Amino acid sequence: MRQIDHFIVGGAGPSSGRKHQVWNPSTGEVQAEVALGDAALLQRAVEAAKAVQPAWAATNPQKRARVMFEFKRLVEANKQALAEMLASEHGKVVEDAHGDIQRGLEVIEYACGIPQALKGEYTPSAGPGIDVYSMRVPLGIGAGITPFNFPAMIPMWMFGMACAAGNAFILKPSERDPSVPVRLAELFLEAGSPEGVLQVVHGDKEMVDAILDHPDIAAISFVGSSDIAHYIYSRGTANAKRVQAFGGAKNHGIVMPDADLDQVVNDLAGAAFGSAGERCMALPVVVPIGEDTADKLREKLIPAINALRVGVSTDKDAHYGPVVTPEHKARVEQWITTAEQEGGEIVIDGRGFSLQGHEKGFFIGPTLIDRVTPQMKSYQEEIFGPVLQIVRAKDFEDALKLPSEHQYGNGVAIFTRNGHAAREFASRVNVGMVGINVPIPVPVAYHSFGGWKRSGFGDIDQYGMEGLRFWTKTKKVTQRWPDGGGDGSNAFIIPTMG
Ligand code: NAD
């Protein structure tokens, strides 16, 4: 059995002995075991990080940027192998795994500009003979705890910005698909990073709790499900750490009566079923406005969904692959049953789907459920599978209310040809990321990413300038170089610019 170990300075050494099975979701077989670390292992990683971080922070930012440039080159050179490794543990199709890597690399590209981004502010003559300047300094040691669904992109969002800014970083990736994060850390070292700047520790709650309680870890970035995100935020901030914790989602796509329905169907198929629905920016709820729009949309959706090809992750023609584990397959199928029991109309049923020749794989057929209402549990909670729910709204206000009042507020999209309605929607909807005729509005790397309500705890977003703010603090310097003559001011009165 292939063993996946921690990537820390000095090697993994003796660990707690606990292990976690890593599946190949396409075959339904266990393909590897990952070591689960404990507080003692984390301590070794923290000591190594502490030893290297001051010199890394003191390295001039152009040299740190050169490591990012070389890392980008190496990831690109290894992209196919990384994508295949990613797909074999996650289950997404290889081409989509390329996208997972690419969207992370775009943050690395942004981090290549770190000398520019880190420049501080300066005000000459803020007072008589007084200058004020501020500089961004790294926090020290940062940690990232990441979900299974983007094992390349989300770690790169975090360590790209954190390391470029001069921090050391300890990554605790998902134990379900841990190989790619380790490979990325190896490539980062190969790119010229000093040993210890980026380390990977594996584990489950035991390791996460050790990170949350470690006094030398200054900041934690988390992405995963909302209950865990809330827990991470509460415990991390109680330990006086800076924490950003992003959670689950239930993104709605509002379809106005004037929308181009063929375009909507095409967009929805990819956004609802791509990566088997295991994306936090997937679009699992569609809200047509008016019965007429709903009926027409449903009529067009049915053949489009029936035409989707489910396949193993290496199938070049497959639209999507299996879900990540047998437990997750059972959970998604249970949600379809719950929706049925609650009165939802199962228009296309993906339960019990079996792929010929791969009967043990964790496949779920695409599922369409109509006449879903806000009172249903299956609407209120995240399903995270290839399931699209139709909630029929009577008018614009009714449709606007649904995502605005939902517990999650990650992404939302509106499909329309009416610019006024789109503008009104974007300004009023209570959700963090909005798409206008764009089904998956993940902002590009030089903007920033973050949902609202139970999709995001804390107040600073991922990547872009927001990411830089998260991974740095500002030092403000007020300087005066007196000429020795004295300026006669009264030192007992607070200086004002009056
Ligand atoms: P998860 O919450 O199960 O796991 C995320 C991380 O938390 C993993 O590293 C895991 O080891 C750790 N963890 C799990 N249980 C824990 C516990 N009890 N205590 C401490 N740590 C624990 O999430 P997942 O299933 O890996 O990922 C899917 C979820 O992530 C979905 O809810 C999805 O919407 C969400 N997600 C959100 C975003 C976003 O940006 N908002 C992005 C991607 C995924």
TrEMBL record:
Keyword Oxidoreductase part of the UniProt annotation: yes
Enzyme class: oxidoreductase
One Pfam assignment: Aldedh
Oxidoreductase listed as a keyword: yes
Top-level taxon of origin: Bacteria
InterPro entries, alphabetized: Ald_DH/histidinol_DH, Ald_DH_C, Ald_DH_N, Aldehyde_DH_dom, MeMal-semiAld_DH
EC annotation from Swiss-Prot or TrEMBL: 1.2.1.-
CDD domains according to UniProt: ALDH_F6_MMSDH (cd07085)
Domain spans labelled Aldehyde dehydrogenase: 16-477
Record keywords: Oxidoreductase
Record GO terms (molecular function): oxidoreductase activity
PANTHER family attached to this UniProt entry: MALONATE-SEMIALDEHYDE DEHYDROGENASE (PTHR43866)
Identification of the protein by name: CoA-acylating methylmalonate-semialdehyde dehydrogenase
Annotated source species: Altererythrobacter litoralis
